């Protein structure tokens, strides 16, 4: 085996090129190369067709969902009118009070969580002498 020979498998296109280059193994390599190119082309075509089919099914489902969503959205103004006629708006003081209550609960919970994450000091004396030596 010479130093220039590669042991890697040939792609179909390389096999055709090699077949045309070498006359002794040419017909076999040309045939194998042509079959490989045809197989790869067929596999690619099947993959493309299946992807198109899958995307088409997804698109049709999306169209159905979009139509249903459009129908719901068109009925929103009527539903809001029906709800708007029956309810009263809360007074501004009630809204301000609710906001203050939410902030107070948030501040208390923040301080509790922060304290719980800090380690407690050890009741044991330090294991090293903390006084500096001259």
Automatic annotation (TrEMBL):
Keywords: Cell cycle, Cell division, Cell membrane, Cell shape, Membrane, Transmembrane, Transmembrane helix
Annotated protein name in UniProt: Cell wall synthesis protein CwsA
Source organism (scientific name): Mycolicibacterium hodleri
Lineage: Bacteria, Bacillati, Actinomycetota, Actinomycetes, Mycobacteriales
Annotated family: Belongs to the CwsA family.
Domain of life: Bacteria
Biological-process GO terms, alphabetical: cell division; cell wall biogenesis; regulation of cell shape
Record's subcellular location: Cell membrane
Pfam families hit by this protein: CwsA (PF10814)
Reported function: Required for regulated cell division, cell wall synthesis and the maintenance of cell shape.
Keyword Cell membrane tagged: yes
A cellular component term, taken from the record's GO annotations: plasma membrane
Annotated transmembrane regions: 93-113
Its membrane topology: Single-pass membrane protein
